[in-house]
Amino acid sequence: MPTKPGAAAPAGPSPASPAAPAPPATPAPPAAAQPPAGDAPLVESAPANEPKVQLSEVVVEGLAGHPEQQRLEQAVYGAMTVTPGSQVTRSQLRKDLGAIYATGWFSDARMVPKDGPLGVRLVVTVLPYPVLSKVTLEPPDAKVPARVVEETFAADYGRTLNLNTLQNRMQDLQRWYADKGYSLARVTGPGRISPDGSVQLMVRQGTVSGVEVQFLDKEGNTTDDKGRPIRGKTKTWVVTREISMRPGEIFNRRNLEDDIKRLYGTGLFSDVKVTLRPSPDDPGRVTIVLGVVEQSTGSLSGGLGYSQSQGVFGQIQVQDSNLFGRAWDLSTSFTYGQFGGLFDITFTDPWIKGDPFRTAFRAKAFISRDVPQVFQSQNNGNIYTVSDFYQAPGTNIAYNINSYNNPLNGPIGSVQQAQSESPNSSWFNYDGNSVVVQRIGGNLQFVRPLNGGNPFVRAPWSLIAGLNAQQVTPMNVGGTTMPYGVLNSAFDPTGSYVPINAIVCVAYNCANRNQLVGIRLATTMNTLDDPRNPTRGDFLSLGTEQFVSVGPDSPTFNRLRGSFTHFIPVNWLKFYKGCRPGAKPGQCKQALAFQVSAGTVLGDLPPYEAFCVGGGNSVRGYYDCDLGVGKSFGEATIEYRFPLFSIVSGELFVDGGTTFGSQSKVPGNLGPLLGKPGEGFSVGTGVIVTTPVGPLRLEVASQDFTSNWRFNLGVGWKF
Fold first, then answer.
1. How far apart, in whole angstroms, are the C-alpha atoms of residue 208 and residue 251?
2. Which residues of the chain have a pLDDT value below 50?
């Protein structure tokens, strides 16, 4: 029987000693390593004249044969302030008893003073907790993995359970929940400690009982001046479908933050306030209350711009991005420029209601007129309109019926008249306007992310399926049908004739109208870290579009196209402060960018559907479509992007492009006819300035390594 170290007390009791030992202090075992709650006031309010006894010996019992007997005995002695030879009161004993409990080692502790041969002998009887063998959680399906539980308590298995250590381990589990976003989870207990060392902990994970939507005004009020609830335009299901947590699921703060970002991403709300309302019947359940402030979704906008294909143009657009409160987007726009115009109506459903894949739908109807760049060149002439053409067998030149120097010595009323009067000569009716292509039609498109049926997962892959139909009419700027064209620089000095090969069909089959009906299938993969100015990740696009004939002037062909973009973050140039040592991560938007694109057409190709190479979004040292017009093409770009100031970035780039020798396969041999080389490259530099209307790009690039330089003004990065 061990005794507390120290000198033995005098043989007789002190004059203040009671005639009989004080009754033992035997509080009930606490649930945690704290003294019984009822004892603390007795210690604090102990009377000053409380009787004292002098101890001769302190003995610890109850640990005989325990594998950690010495350690536990030292814990008892270390917790006590009384020592042999000291005079103690009942309050001091209770205080030491509480200190023994506070060590966390014992489920029960009692102090019994007994008379001994040398004086009052204090016997401390303790009952240690069992040796820890297992930890279980209630409920058994708690989110924390069993592996995490085992790793948390691995160092404690095979050792005497200590409630203080247990509380620390429980805090570790609590931190795991917090780190994973389960901010309402609470780990409590132990709920049960079995004699075999099995400990059960209680986990209240915090579940969602439902989602409610409240509409707020701009000041955050839920009611108007008359006390009536604020009524919103948006359907409540449009809001709640963006919330990933369903009733009965465990609340997760991270998931809710992502949900709120998606709500803002809809563009329907200017503010979203979140309140968690506990359930009155079950504090472990909460209702997510979303207070949303709607913003105006109707807009009228307009502007002016310039492009090589349209020249100076103006645009006006009317849009409602929350049609009928269902998040439908309906817009109509009208664009008119020097060389063309466009009117379209577009309907978009960003998420078809009830679809678990978050499939989007888009429908568009349009009428457009533009001057295709395939019929133009910067320095080698343009293809101008011809209303009619007759080719006599065996002839190499064709005469303009409007010339005074043709074989009939003067203007002729029509090609048919010229043919009847001089059938051995070829004739054409020169109109002399730019070739305009009018398109009237529409298209349908479905976009489905490959998210496995979870609409809240950001899926890198998407599938696209679409159907389009349009009628294409070649014409002049006045709207008169013109199925032919002629190279204006091919005329003889008198303007009376041109080589036969200088006259081309503008449309398929030299028809007045073509009908194009096609089905499109495509897939995209997007892992970019920033949709506007990425520095890391990839973007892949692959597509095929099959056009089928629906009549004699309706071609059948397949268009294949693909592109791949790759970004590598670098930090070579440290001019901008965000790229210097010590700057916060993400401030240095500096990267090496690579892009490769290619495409080909199989089948009957209308000239206006040929691939264009060259331009501000192609090989930048060449004007739009001035490098080549091909049935196939390939392009590659290497670009170094670096920030200069907070709103100004720079770039160095090399572009290259080729038609793979396919220019001659385009009907009319347009590329060689217009003096387009078919392949080339450019090197250049530029700056990108972030403005309130978007990033503007100003670049200068060379044609190959010549002294021919071209300036380019664009919007945003090339890719």
1. 6
2. 5-46
